[in-house]
Design brief:
Layout (H helix, E strand, L loop, with lengths): L1 E5 L3 E6 L3 E7 L2 E8 L4 E7 L3 H9 L8 E5 L2 E11 L4 E12 L14 E12 L3 E14 L9 E15 L2 E8 L10 E8 L4 H4 L3
Antiparallel strand pairs: 1-2, 2-5, 3-4, 4-7, 5-6, 7-8, 8-9, 9-10, 10-11, 11-12, 12-13
Length: 206
């Protein structure tokens, strides 16, 4: 169930369904996630005062009316493997394929109506305390920098990097994305804090 509220003038209710499965085979892990299976919808309703309608009109903005927002289904296929690097380190390699069914997109695998966007990442785990991460995704064709005359297109991509630190049940993660894949990139810093309330000994059955 989805509920959205934008100030006092816009509200939405919606419903969607996701499903997934994981398969473990020796050192390999496989995953399938179906998102928005039912074409997730949000029904929006708007309530404006006469004064607010006047402001929208005077600023050349349309006065929104009731509408329905639909999110098309997508399928995410994933595969990963953990490689041991000695007694205190390991390297996790993962690849995903994001498959959409809503028409041709500017992705590495582009078709109509099915397109697919690959994503790859690595995580270095040191003694299950310190983590280093790197990844690449969002492959797209765009005009080459400065080439507005020939309209030549080249492949661009979006790399990302991150790190994590774990002390007992507390984990701190940092991610840095949008690393200069265009001439004027926007940078995003993401920090997260996770607290595990389950005793690690109980998880191991000790």
């Amino acid at each position: 169930m989805i509920h959205r509220s934008v100030g006092k003038f816009a509200k939405a209710w919606g419903f969607g369904l996701d499903a997934g499965i994981q398969i473990f085979q020796n050192k390999w892990k496989f995953g399938i996630a179906a998102r928005d299976i039912t074409s997730t919808f949000n029904a929006w309703s708007f309530t404006f005062t006469e004064r607010e309608k006047e402001v929208l009109y005077l600023t050349n903005n349309e006065i929104p009316v009731k509408s329905t927002e639909l999110t098309a289904p997508r399928l995410v296929l994933g595969i990963s493997r953990d490689f041991k690097l000695g007694k205190k380190a390991s390297l996790l390699a993962e690849a995903n394929l994001d498959v959409t069914f809503d028409g041709q997109r500017n992705t590495l695998i582009s078709g109509n109506p099915v397109s697919a966007d690959p994503k790859m990442g690595l995580e270095l785990n040191i003694n299950n305390v310190f983590f280093l991460r790197g990844g690449i995704n969002n492959f797209q064709k765009a005009l080459a920098d400065g080439d507005t005359l020939n309209q030549k297109k080249v492949w661009i991509y979006q790399p990302s990097a991150g790190a994590g630190f774990k002390i007992q049940n507390v984990t701190i993660d940092y991610a840095f994305t949008n690393l200069a894949n265009q001439s004027n990139p926007l940078f995003t810093h993401v920090f997260s804090l996770r607290l595990n309330l389950v005793n690690s000994k109980k998880e191991k059955g000790e």
